Amino acid sequence: MTRVAGVDSSTQSCTIVVRDTATGRLVRSGRAPHPDGTEVDPKAWWDAFRVAADAAGGLSDVAAISVAGQQHGMVALDVDGAVVRPALLWNDTRSADAATDLIRDLGSQRAWAESVGSVPVASFTASKLRWLRDHEPDSAARVAAVALPHDWLSWRIAGHGSGGTGRGPRAAGRTSDGGGAALDALVTDRSEASGTGYWSPRDGDYRRDLLELALGRDVRLPRVLGPAESVAARGSEIVADGTIVGAGAGDNAAAALALDMRPGDLAVSIGTSGVVSAVSAAATADPSGKVAGFANATGAYLPLACTLNASRVLDATCRVLGVDHDLLSELALVAPPGADGLTLVPYLEGERTPNRPDATGTLHGLQLATTTPEHLARAAVEGMLCGLDDALDALRAHDVPVNRLLLIGGGARSEAVRQIAPQVFGMPIEVPEPGEYVADGAARQAAWALSGTATPPVWDAGEAPTVHNGPAEPHIRQRYAEVRDLAP
């Protein structure tokens, strides 16, 4: 039996699945946590990958491996391949002003949308590079190459580089294969490149002028591989010499590949962030900045709108009420739709849709009758879903067809979320069998790279999604819309 591995190197953890190449059957899996925070030494990702690989029974027997990862993060490397400073993650909002500066310097949001399909926000790599240039000029001067988290981990798996953060111009963390040669081995894929702010999905090429606008000069960037392209690993204690390393993908593109999404399908993912994404045959360009015009993992496009506040809204409410997620769900289902007017605008970490990085969360409609755990639990679930529905409306405004809603991610495990979502979205939702969709999509891509075929392999889809339906409750969204812009 030929086996492939898929890796999900997410914000919170590293998950590895090993699957049978022919059928997609899960053989084994492993997981390890990542450190908290919005910046991290990439060595932590490598350490977690090694622990997860051990937990998965090792990877020496896999023929191919692909890595899907959190998008946008900035991994800056020096001439020796050492990490210049801890990587800034997508959810680090210190680069919000830098994004504003980039928009001003190019002339308008429309100019950015027409150039790369998206308008810079704090999460984009270009914004983080601009922040680095402006706030840490000595570090910026040492940058010889820029990679994304998935690019860096794939590079390490393929046998290049070493681990730690460099502490000087030629400090610890030297590459195992020497300077520029190692940097030339960096690769990425269309979906990840499209989230940098300096690669055009429409043109299929880097915009070096925009990279220079961000960092102030040109540097090495990963070679962009096609969906089924790969490189060969040089061998290590983890993967065998000659193991195929696939192009990899952004987390949302990998999940779409695992779900075999087609035009008309739309995924609502409730994880650390909330993501609404759809497969499209044509590139999109939204000058408002609400919809990011990304590429997907099959050669098409993945228009996407993202919220910063998703499952952690539920986590926070659990802490406030002193309950676990199961009890939070039970409480939310006791209160009536609309929570008798109690409305949470859940901008707990700023917000990306709408682009309000400095906003804070607010609770409206407190009365004696609504100061109950049940009402607060209901308001938290509804507020989180209303934020996602704002993102869904942004895609609809750009004529993205919405025929089928798939609800995925950790938040989709909540019974309250599953029951309340049709009331907020105004249409049925389908909840696929819980799984590691990002890692599974990476595994499917690895099998595709191994096969050399024109299309990804067809794997057993498993159980049919569970359909949840119910009457639409438009007053929930109406009340939310009334108070949303009151948030500071």
Task: Describe what you observe in this structure.
With 488 residues, the chain is an alpha+beta fold. Helices cover 34% and strands 20% of the residues. The chain has helices at 43-55, 96-106, 109-116, 125-135, 137-142, 149-157, 179-183, 190-193, 208-215, 251-258, 311-321, 325-334, 373-396, 415-425, 437-451, 474-484, and strands spanning 3-9, 13-20, 26-33, 39-40, 64-69, 75-77, 87-88, 145-147, 187-189, 199-200, 205-206, 223-225, 230-232, 244-246, 249-250, 265-270, 274-278, 292-295, 301-307, 343-345, 362-364, 404-408, 429-431, 466-468. Strands 1, 2, 3, 5, 13, 14 and 15 form a seven-stranded mixed β-sheet that branches. The chain has a five-stranded mixed β-sheet with strand order 18-19-17-16-22. Helix 10 (251-258) crosses helix 15 (437-451) and helix 12 (325-334) packs across helix 14 (415-425). It starts with a strand and ends with a helix. Residues 166-176 have low confidence and may be disordered.
Q: TL;DR?
A:
The protein is of the alpha+beta class and 488 residues long. The chain is built from 16 helices and 24 strands.
The major β-sheet equals: 7 strands, mixed
Low-confidence stretches: 166-176
Strand content: 15-25%
> How many helices in DSSP terms?
16
Mean pLDDT across residues: 93
**Radius of gyration, taken over Cα atoms and rounded to an integer in Å:** 22 Å
Tertiary shape: globular
Straight-line distance between termini: 57 Å
Secondary-structure-based class equals: alpha+beta
Q: Based on DSSP secondary structure assignment, what is the total number of beta strands? A: 24
Oligomer: single chain
Helix content: 25-40%
